[in-house]
Amino acid sequence: MQPALTYRAHAGAILRLGMPLILSNLAQFAIHMTDTIMLGWYDVTALAASTIATTLFFVIFIVGAGFAQAVTPMVAAAAEAGDEVQVRRVTRMGLWLSIIYGLAVTVPFFWAEDILLAIGQDAEVAALAHIYLQIVIWQMIPALMVMTLKSFLAALEHTAVILWATIGTALMNAVLNYALIFGNLGAPEMGIRGAAIASLSVTAVTVLWLAVYILRRLPQFELFKNFWRSDAEIMGRVFRLGWPIGLTSLAEGGLFSASAVMMGWIGPIALAAHGIAILLASMTFMVHIGFSQAATVRAGRALGRGDGPLLRRGGITAIGLSAVFAVATSTVFVLFPDVLVSLFIDPEEPARATLLQVGASLVMVAALFQVVDAAQVMALGLLRGVQDTAVPMVMATVSYWGVGMPASYALGFWFGLGAVGLWLGLVIGLTLASVLLMWRFWGRSARIGVRAVA
User: How buried is 454 (Cβ within 10 angstroms: 0-12 exposed, 13-18 middle, 19+ buried)?
Assistant: First the structure.
């Protein structure tokens, strides 16, 4: 039996694995920010169209991404057991499911304008969004393939290439946006079409980048050899593990989308303040997602060894690192809410004072919000590592929609707390999710320990 790792050794392993993932998440976030800023500079209507289009794309994408995320714990467990054939089978079927799903969801996007008009969008915005989606929809399959290949690489702890690929494509995206949206560097001015072409190009380059790396640095897995061969058994396992992950992500993403809709009922100031606070919280949340991804890999490897104590020590360490960062950023949110919100408001904005007041109050709530949000995403990551996704999906969905959403509505409107009440309701839902999911993980980890001894 190998000696137990110390907590310091666990922390070092998680940080070595997690830091490239955290930085790549931040680089991916920078791509979104670049698109938003440059389209905002070009035309407000184009920005609105891309916002609704990317929201629609993301809602569909995030469900399919569950299959890609299922690859991580399965590959980690197989790699720890030294089973290279299983690693190849799992990753290949993850890619198959990504392609099949991508083909299935492509068709409705050809009627994107009709769909957007049916849900009450402005006609001009719907028309521009349709133009954008007719190009970006071809990004669905390569984007899901990128997710799958990143999951494969993360499970094998080859995270540096993920970081450099994301940084490289973020820079490429900025240059292409600058050229194609505005007509710079000798390119034609294409507006929102240019932004869509840039996004599609960046995703295609990322697929090639990762594929070439895998072929050159990890040839022993023969990942693309006889790629056309199906594997019904493994496909079924990836599907059963992946669909609850996708629906859990959809439930959480839908929660925040619904909260934005309710903020709009209060008024434009509340919605703008919500956007600023969500942006700040999302930036710090990228760190917790990175820790969660690292926790999935470490838990998957512990599962592959059947080592319950290793799983529990690693879980404690990963949760502790996330908690330390959450407390540090929450402290900044509490001490400097006005300063943070003011970074996003024009000094000449007539409604600056009101927006600062509402935004600062939401940032104060975000200090509490991100602590429980971090706890629930860490629990989800650990549970995915031990290949437990169906029951956590139910726990999370009930917490988000059965408790969090009604609480938001009640506090925001029935009790008259407005924007702050809506966010407090989210905190309640996320708190319940974190408690249930943590309880689920520690229960599962104890049973894995018993099986290992047996």
Answer: exposed
